[in-house]
Amino acid sequence: MDQRVDDYKDLIAWRRAMELTKAAYLLARMLPREENYALADQIRRSSVSIPSNIAEGYGRTGSKEYARFLSMARGSSYELETQIILCVDLGYIQEADTVKAIGLCKEVARILTRILQSLVNKQEIKTH
Looking at residue 68, which CATH number applies to its domain? Predict the structure, then answer.
């Protein structure tokens, strides 16, 4: 299997984040109309932020900048997960409808955490 990364679109984190964004948009459509410019908009924004920050970080020079954008993407995945949980708690959507999105939130956060840890380890090796 070819593990080569020639472009940010080759990154597993970006691919999963795109899946997550699509799932989040579907959930946002399920919200009541009065939430369209509040919670639904926030869900769309935080979900789009995840793959966008992964891509932007990939395009930056240096691992410190890359790590900063990956960290923002990870934070947005936690933000999105919180918003989805809130939707369930408010009774806007059923928990069963959130399984895919919540699973992807957790998966993306785990992948980003591993990449960030790898970048930190590389930095430590370079400084010693």
Answer: 1.20.1440.60
In a domain, 66, yes or no: yes
Smallest CA-to-CA distance from 24 within 86, 111, 84 is with 84
Residue 115: partners with Cβ closer than 8 Å, 6 or more residues away: 13, 70
What is the pTM (predicted TM-score) of this model? 0.91
Count structural domains, the chain.
1
Does residue 81 lie within any of the structural domains? yes
Interval 13-62: pLDDT, tens = 999 999 999 999 999 999 999 999 999 999 999 999 999 999 999 999 88
